[in-house]
Amino acid sequence: MDIHQLKIFTSVFKNKSFSKASEELYLTQPTVSDHIKVLEDELNCKLFDRLGRTIMPTKEAEVLFNHALEIIEKADNIKDLLCNLKKEISGDIIIGASTIPGTYLMPSIVAKFKKVYPSVSFQILISDSRDIVEKISRHELLIGIVGARLTNSQITYTPFLEDELIVVSSPKLIKNKHMTLKELMKLPIALREEGSGTRKETEKILENNGISIENTKVAGIFGSTDAVKQAVKAGLGISILSRLSVKDELKYGILREIKLTDIKMNRMFYIVTHKKRTLPTAYSIFLDHVRTESKNVHNTIKP
């Protein structure tokens, strides 16, 4: 048994497919199958049941998977430690981020980190908060930044940055700059899709004030913040969005902020990690950088 075989095994386990694992690892499918067969022979057990074109991990595979991840992480950490001896942090950092932090926060934070550690490369995967949390739970990601705290016993949530949600409309649609929440809810509203952190926080705010989302005039549901902004610009309705996401539109008068007279709408962005995963050195250093930068970002997003 070696690290290479364990990496192949974990890829097959996560993808539930020999062909997908071969594509992910840039190996031929017979090579992947041969390595799994050698591993099964060495461990004297079957790791996958072949069910036609699909495979199903056995109980032995489920036990091996968690231990294999730990062994692979420890081996990677040895490389990190050797890099530290050379005073150089290198490697790949993959971050899962929900739309607002992924689009409006992480690029500048990553750019500052790269100036100090140029040998580190980044990939930012943007999805909704629910998807990011699920990927970390399934060990497909190590860290994420999300805009909603979802119920998951495997996940650690660390507060990162407070965000303000505001009401925006097209300047032509609404002339009144001040309204109560109940007055606002008489207007058509454009929403993000379910699973979005902004959508979840919007529903929570409304429910806390005795308003059900089902009783609002939903003008449309959109799969991205940019799509919502375009709908609002076109006069489809108002929307509740992060101040971060509409900073430029407000500055140039493309959108207008409607100030609520009776409530403030704030929510927290969270750093999410798996409770049982050990972060490689590069990830740990980057997270320290993120926490430091959150203080600087907070001062720049005040209205």
Verbal overview:
GO terms for molecular function: DNA-binding transcription factor activity; transcription cis-regulatory region binding. Residues 1-58 form the HTH lysR-type domain. By secondary structure, this protein is an alpha/beta fold. The protein has three domains: 3-84, Winged helix-like DNA-binding domain superfamily/Winged helix DNA-binding domain (Arc Repressor Mutant, subunit A); 88-160 and 268-300, Periplasmic binding protein-like II (D-Maltodextrin-Binding Protein, domain 2), CATH 3.40.190.10; 163-266, D-Maltodextrin-Binding Protein, domain 2 (3-Layer(aba) Sandwich), CATH 3.40.190.10. Helix content is 46%, strand content 24%. The strands form three sheets. Strands 3, 4, 5, 6, 7, 10, 11 and 12 form an eight-stranded mixed beta sheet that branches. The protein has a two-stranded antiparallel ribbon with strand order 1-2. Strands 8-9 form a two-stranded parallel sheet. Helix 1 (3-15) crosses helix 3 (29-43). It is elongated and about 75 Å long. It starts with a helix and ends with a helix.
